[in-house]
Amino acid sequence: MRRAIQSHEAWIWGGSLVLTVLTRQIAFGLVPLALAHGRWQRQQWEQRLVEHSNRWEQQWERWLVEHSNRWEQQWRIQQHQIFQRVEQHLQSVQPTPAPLVHSPQPAVDAQVTQLLAEVGSLAEQVKQLQEQPRSHLSIQQQMAPLVQRLHLLQEDWQRLKLQALPHLEETQQQLQKQLNQVQSQIDKFQQQLEKLQQQQAAVSSQPCQDSIPPRRAGVGVFIDGANLHASARDLGVSLDYESLIPRLLGSSAKRAQIHFYSGWDPKDPQQKAFHEYLEQLGFHLHRKPVVHFANGGSKANMDGEMIVDMLVSRYGRVILLSGDGDFLRALQHLQSQGVQVEVAAFGQHTQWEMRRQFPFVELSRMLDRGREVIPLPAKQVPSA
């Protein structure tokens, strides 16, 4: 190998010398030397890489052999310790004597006696239920636990039959006879109950005059005092109910019922006098005292009461004096039930949907200006 390399180097040096002489340029003569030097360096690197890879592979195999031996020794030590602990535990446990086998005859006798007593009690309950007159719903409620108890007794009876003894044959026959009697009584009773239910269903399916709701009639006026008085005070319009209601209802005023809803302050004499004045006009007054909170707020909201009263009323025509949009859904429901719904309020303080969906009456055209409106408690005052 070395001879081949030396002859190869001799050829390179000779070629370089020849090129230098022929071209008379040293640079051309150095080209073979540069090419030979690069090839020599690559051979050196390849040789080093092979040496290092062999060395790393030998070290890795040596490390694996050493650690595998160590792990095997540790596992054998732990296994030996586990075996020692198991042997110590087995030596410490004392063998328990085998339980004595008793004859099942006394236990079976007790179970049969108890089962006979329960069957007799069940038969007595069924007999009492037949003799006492009750509604079919109460009978059905009391029958359910009896039937369930009968099923449990039959399950107990099947278990006793599996462990039957020769001396209990007569008792088993007696128990089976009683169970059959109770079952037949319950079957007859359930048949009677089903007939009663069918008769009542036939009666309930017939039309009844009392179940037909009364026909809607009359006019109901529902006034939201807090909303109406606040709007009137803001617009500077006076509220004269004595003249407003006849102008609003016309010929229907005589058969109309006026409902006025408002919160009130028991300590305010002006509000008390105003409410007495409305009662003299024939208004149905609905009011609740103002609730004051510790944070400075207050509440006297009657919207819920108004909505409920409107929905349960039987008026053929309903007139709402309020611009509050909280009543929109209630008015829509009344209209779907065939009620003639109208809204009378101040247009500037009325929700747009209420003005669009229902006939709207502008109250400012029916009222005068100048006289002061009595202030009523607001529905809700936020905390300070």
From TrEMBL:
<keyword id="KW-1133">Transmembrane helix</keyword>
<dbReference type="InterPro" id="IPR021139">
    <property type="entry name" value="NYN"/>
</dbReference>
<feature type="domain" description="NYN">
    <location>
        <begin position="219"/>
        <end position="357"/>
    </location>
</feature>
<keyword id="KW-0472">Membrane</keyword>
<keyword id="KW-0175">Coiled coil</keyword>
<protein>
    <submittedName>
        <fullName>NYN domain-containing protein</fullName>
    </submittedName>
</protein>
<feature type="transmembrane region" description="Helical">
    <location>
        <begin position="12"/>
        <end position="35"/>
    </location>
</feature>
<dbReference type="Pfam" id="PF01936">
    <property type="entry name" value="NYN"/>
</dbReference>
<dbReference type="InterPro" id="IPR047140">
    <property type="entry name" value="LabA"/>
</dbReference>
<feature type="coiled-coil region">
    <location>
        <begin position="165"/>
        <end position="206"/>
    </location>
</feature>
<keyword id="KW-0812">Transmembrane</keyword>
